[in-house]
């Protein structure tokens, strides 16, 4: 994982997604639920790297490996990967499932970025 993308786990998830953190900072997070064995996830990874840089200051990009982190995966009812969630104030504002192009991902994010 790069310095531009947060690595979320079951253990550190609440550090980023608690009422005190999100209400105070009003962050918009893009979370990629992925797995090592998922080829579409691997194809999406470099696109997310570019998005993390291009949208710096507007969103925070994060990844969560579903195989290593079953608690958060279950909390958000993730059934297919890659699944991308846009979360603001601990509320899902949008979901996309499956591989998409960089332009499709930018369009998706721009709908929700102020």
UniProtKB/TrEMBL annotation:
The active site is at 38 (nucleophile), 41 (nucleophile). CDD domains: TRX_family (cd02947). The record marks 39-40 as: Contributes to redox potential value. Signal peptide: none annotated. One of its GO terms (molecular function) is protein-disulfide reductase activity. Keywords: Disulfide bond, Electron transport, Redox-active center, Transport. Residues 1-114 form the Thioredoxin domain. GO terms for cellular component: cytosol. The record marks 32 as: Deprotonates C-terminal active site Cys. The keyword Transport applies. One of its GO terms (biological process) is cell redox homeostasis. Disulfide bonds join 38-41. It holds the Pfam family Thioredoxin. InterPro entries: Thioredoxin (IPR005746), Thioredoxin-like_sf (IPR036249), Thioredoxin_domain (IPR013766). Belongs to the thioredoxin family. Participates in various redox reactions through the reversible oxidation of its active center dithiol to a disulfide and catalyzes dithiol-disulfide exchange reactions. PANTHER family: GEO12009P1. This is Thioredoxin. The gene is trxA.
């Amino acid at each position: 994982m790069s310095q531009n993308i947060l690595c979320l786990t079951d253990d550190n998830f609440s550090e980023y997604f608690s009422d005190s953190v999100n209400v105070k900072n009003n962050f918009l997070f893009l979370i990629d639920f992925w797995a090592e064995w998922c080829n579409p996830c691997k194809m999406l990874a470099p696109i997310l790297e570019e998005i993390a840089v291009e949208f710096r200051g507007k969103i925070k990009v994060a990844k969560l490996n579903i195989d290593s982190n079953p608690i958060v995966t279950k909390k958000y009812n993730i059934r297919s990967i890659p699944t991308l969630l846009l979360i603001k104030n601990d509320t899902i504002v949008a979901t996309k499932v499956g591989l998409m192009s960089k332009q499709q991902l930018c369009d998706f994010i721009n709908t929700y970025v102020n």
